[in-house]
Amino acid sequence: MAHGTKPMFVSAERYGTATVSDGAWRSRGTGSLMAVAGAFTLAQLLLVPPSMGLGWDEVVYVSQVAGEAPAAFFSAPRARGVPLLVWPVASWSSSTTLLRVYLAVLSGLGLYLALRAWRGLFPARVLAGAGTLFTTLWVTLFYGPQAMPNLWVAYGALFCVGCSLRAHADRFDARALCGVLAGAAVMAWMRPTDAVWVTLPLLALAVAVRHRRLGGALVAGLVAGGAEWVIEAFVSYGGLRERLNQASRIQGDLGWNLAVDDQLRSLVGTTLCRPCDGEMPDPAVYAWWFVLPLLAAYALAVAVWSGRTTRTLVPLACAATAAFPYLFLIGYAAPRFLLPAYALLAVPVADALLHAATKPNGRWRPAVAAVLAVGLIGHLAVQYTVLDRTVDRTTAKRRAWTRSAAELHRLGVRPPCLLTGHEAIPVAHYTGCASGATHGHNANTTRAEILRTARSIPVGALSAPGRKPPRYADGWEVHRLDRLEVRIAPTPGAGGPA
Description:
Elements: E1 13-15, E2 18-20, H1 22-47, H2 56-63, H3 81-90, H4 96-116, H5 124-135, H6 138-143, H7 150-169, H8 174-190, H9 192-208, H10 212-236, H11 240-250, H12 260-266, H13 283-306, H14 309-328, H15 339-357, H16 366-410, E3 418-421, H17 424-431, E4 434-436, H18 447-453, E5 459-463, E6 477-480, E7 485-488
Parallel strand pairs: 3-4, 3-5
Antiparallel strand pairs: 1-2, 5-7, 6-7
């Protein structure tokens, strides 16, 4: 290679003093990344039952393209990326198992492509290690086969940052610039606001080094992915500003709010911690969370010492901006919110661990490697335990929705029908009904409209046992479901309150 050409890429990948030829490195790198991606897909299928029913948010996304039930209310913060992702299966099949298998395979492929964008920036074993660290987190495994946006934002972020570093090294690398555009578009299509936060350091880099092509690719990707969300804001939400305001209100009025402790509480397997006022979990559950920034700092120190600061600093900066709104601007927590940050941290952290465990000649440091191995084994044990409990708890709740739907069918609530009240969105989907709410984040109807609908089709008002039902359901027949109560309006045509 001529001196001064593509300074961040070398034909002989070097780590310490060990070198590998370009062809051998690429072959080994591809094989190891494929192995990690395949193992991730297999782990999902084994540890997260494909038969697990759809969750609340999944119902909202899948119902937009599925035909077995009316589309659920699509609130302001949501974007259309996930409906597009599941459309190839959900548009013609109601099989949750098939959808889970499809998403598990697709998430394995997404992991491979996201890590592949980093080839040449870090050694193959660093990238394989990064993939292993990220995919063995319980939250990554749990959401891999689910119809949710956060993992796909993480993949888009990892791909976009890797391609940005390539474009930074070679201003005329058209493939890297296309990758930057594609990664930014995927993020924006899934969650536009997350895409903006992730790309802030990349935009700053493009400005700092006067890289117009990189900046243009980033902006083009954000526009391409976010255009539909902006257009929909004017069509359905009263304009962009109003949609942003609605999204803020639904998320608890965004503003300065320390949510670090909320995220810690959610690590025990609480998929949505709102309100997040429970006890702190055992320190063993969140110990890795405090080790992570220490390893990130060590990775940066190693990078500075080795003269490769940019390729480590940039993903660390993007991870910080990706995590910032969920740690400091929101009043509740969900572990999946931080998936993009975890994905971006995985590469520098894997590099730090490998540097600590190996000598300059590439040989292992037995004592350090043993300590790290014990720590990682303990970490994996905790992650598996949390995953197992989360899967059991989640599966039980979704089976309860299935039983409630079966009982509603027995009571005569069959499509076309309408359900309102507590947990109406998921139960309605399982029953094949439309869902409605007169207040709250998913308000999409009125009391008068519900009573008018009850004159023509079956209508049920759901409530938690012991909770006061909606006033419009006073006098309706009460039935006990699994973990719920339902008040069913008088049979259409039979008279009764209106």
